Amino acid sequence: MDALKQRSQKAIEKPVVIATQQPPKPGHNAFIFKGVEGFSALGKHLPKTWNDASELPKIPIYTVSPMTSSKIVLIGQKMIENLVGSRASNDLVDTMLYLAVSLRDPGDTTKAFLNAPDTAIWKRADLAEPNANDTKAALRKRFDEIRNKNRTGSTSTPAEPETVNAVVGDEDSIDDRASAYCYIAAYLMRLHVCQPDSFIKSIKRMQERFKGWYAAGHKVIDSFQLEKSMANSIKQAFVRRSGVISTWVMWVAYNENETEMGKKNKELMEYLSGQVFQYIGMHALTLTVALQQVTKCDMGFLLGELKCPMTREAVQAIDHLLQNHELVKEKPGSKTYFRYARVWDSDYFLEIQSKNVPN
User: Fold this and answer.
1) Whole-structure pTM value
2) Name one Pfam family in it (predicted).
3) Last residue of a domain, one of 247, 277, 307
4) Proportion of the chain above pLDDT 70, given as a percent
5) Judgement on whether residues 249 and 320 belong to the same structural domain of the protein
6) Does 186 share its domain with 265?
């Protein structure tokens, strides 16, 4: 024991030498590069600072508006037909956007419940509304086939349907079917961030969840299916048509912040979009918040414990985000646009991007 104490005492008395970097002197190689002394390489991108007032107007979105139930069903049937195969066209993803923003109100399926973002704020580009003429022609052809098949010698024949609601063999109302097509389109938007394999596996659950919000339209939902090759193609199409996702997420964020939605509609939007488009690539933040909720410790204490030379930049960025952006009870009225910022530009909150934070 005495020997151990002596060794400990010697260790304490032993002077600690701290290496310090001296300024470069003339004649030393480092002196040649004195102009970049103190610089830190940030890689390919410079982090962007998020601010609602300055950044929201920079986000380009398409000018789109909700469609009527009659047109939704025509366009929805066309979308389902175009989902067969292995290649997603630009027209297909554009159609999906129009259907998604036309989401029907679970409490009244005759109307849409999402409002268009304020026209005075965002950069806009026109996006042509899907053309239903081809679909109408296809429906007339289908009706003629059914009429000819069912003829039994009677002199009377059924009249050609003026609207898609008259199509034979579908007991759901036009509004119920419209609800299903819009729901499917909004769910397909998740492929921007979801992997095709996991998306395909989630379809059955998606179909079940639909029935918790909508009382009818189940025939359309239950018949929906998607091949992995098409899921892959849709994901690639979203890269080509980045404005489609940018516009959809802006509709989601705008309605989350600027409109009054009932509990049921809020839950629907959270399921369709909030779960996947919020905090993209910001696992350092979400894990820190989850850790604080589990441990119940003070956030300041937790960040202090997490801070070290390797994590300093990320911890400071989390501290800044929590103080200036996050919706907390101490700051009522805060907006949540920042949660979707990395969908619009991955250079926002770059300091807490998952790959930039040490494990």
Assistant:
1) 0.77
2) Rhabdo_ncap_2
3) 277
4) 72
5) no
6) yes
